[in-house]
Amino acid sequence: MSQTQSRSPVLEVRDLITQVATPTGAKTIIDTLSFQLNSQETLCIAGESGSGKSVTALSIMGLLPPSAHITQGEILLEGQNITGLPDREMQKIRGGDIAMIFQEPMTSLNPVMSIGSQLVEAISTHQNVYGRDAETIALKSLDAVRINESKKRMKQYPHELSGGMRQRVMIAMALSCNPKVLIADEPTTALDVTIQAQTLSLMNDLKRDFDTAIILITHDMGVVAEMADNVIVMNQGKIIESQPVKDLFLTPREPYTKDLLAAVPKLGSFKDISPVPKHINEASDPVSPLVEVRDLTVRFDIKGGLLQRPVSRVHAVEKLSFDLYPGETLALVGESGCGKSTIGKSLTNLIPWNGSIKVDGQELAGLSAKEMLPVRRKMQMVFQDPYAALDPRMTVGDLVGEPLIIHGLANGSELQDRVAKLFTQVGLGPEYMDRHPHEFSGGQRQRICIARALSLEPKVIIADESVSALDVSVQAQVLDLLKKIQDELDISFLFISHDMAVVEQVCHRVAVMLLGQIVECGPRDTVFNNPQHPYTKRLLDAVPIADPTIKRKDRKLPTGEVPSPIQKLDYTPIIPELHHIGNGHFVRDVQEYR
Question: How much is the pTM?
């Protein structure tokens, strides 16, 4: 409980009802919501997609779309009712007294204005400070959020910054006007785990230094445990439960809250998966790898100048080697830009690469598109965004059956029967086959993508961040489905992710990647319980712990940005040696990487 409880609340919401117009009449999306927020306090609003978390923030900010309106209740800012204020008056409050950080900074920042111009504009609008004085405040704001070389960043544009840096710019912009309340709507969902840890630590420091109250909207219960003083759990626009953070985690009252907490993947809680697949563990004869990758190298030239000649080069993957065995799940983990997804695209010959890739003993180098068809039957992909992977004009039954038609494996009634069986296999009945992708939830769409991948009876499925965009309960269902499919069909998975807790739940072996190289690889238990490379240790240390009673002291958070894989044309990469330290555990020589 915050020490500021005795003060008058800086923000109070009383019996708020927000409705949206629909063809069938008004629909209530926020139903009699009430809470109080004090300065230097963090209130977390948790819940799954569609629970009303973001609409709550937009209602407070006065940013509801034209079809939505507050029909009842009050929003009090330091005692003043701001509900229904004219837009001109709300503009003074919005960004000044109440600031908001959105989930995706790239869509919140103007792509044709420099970072400095956008900061100065916000400061001038709300503080009536102009010219060099506004620039000085902007620089101090960037320094406060620990952006290095702040003068250089002022001149850069959003696309020139990483996701973590862009999010810090948004925080700097929000804090530049000293707001009384900071609303952060899923501010770390799109960030890597180490950048997320930096951002959360930064928000805690700024709350203390600037005497700011924070409303943090998230579906990540690990973030809730680390950040919250008090927690509101929402579902279908209503408050299901409201408690101080420790009470909520230790003694949740409502079944919905209990289910939400039970679905959270926790490091160290999945000991039932053997470090190697059961049939390999019991095999008397050596098992041959299903996929063999040797010295895989992927580089992309960046062109510039009037003649569009190469000016620099992206070293996406450098001399990388690994094996994937039958029935095994190998996880590739690391931060954005480390080369994980590039490996997935290389294995399916979607991008140019050098080295050797063998699938079921067949070398892929030099194969034509026609020659790759039988290989693609053996190896399928499940992508991060299921909605983007499904053609909205086709029914989901046609989408799942399409690979069977392309490969000439089925038609007519046989096709319908096989598609119906696939829908049943992924937990959706055949009655769903005539619907279109927009009629399904995110978790259901991902199940459809899995059914489509299974249609060709592949030996390998490459799952590229396949559950990162899903709510924790839906995520748990999809992960259980993947495990069930593996047990039944003996499929191998290359599981690409940056979520270490999810990786621990599903993988047999894990390979940790940094700048296109594997820095540590081995059985899951060995790598997670006894990490040897400092980068692996920092990745694990940055994972939010869904237990408010555990406070990480002296946390060694990474500083600055992950080094860029973009190098000059004459750059020669250094490939440190990979040492075997026993029990299939390999570690590279340590280089300075931060």
Answer: 0.79
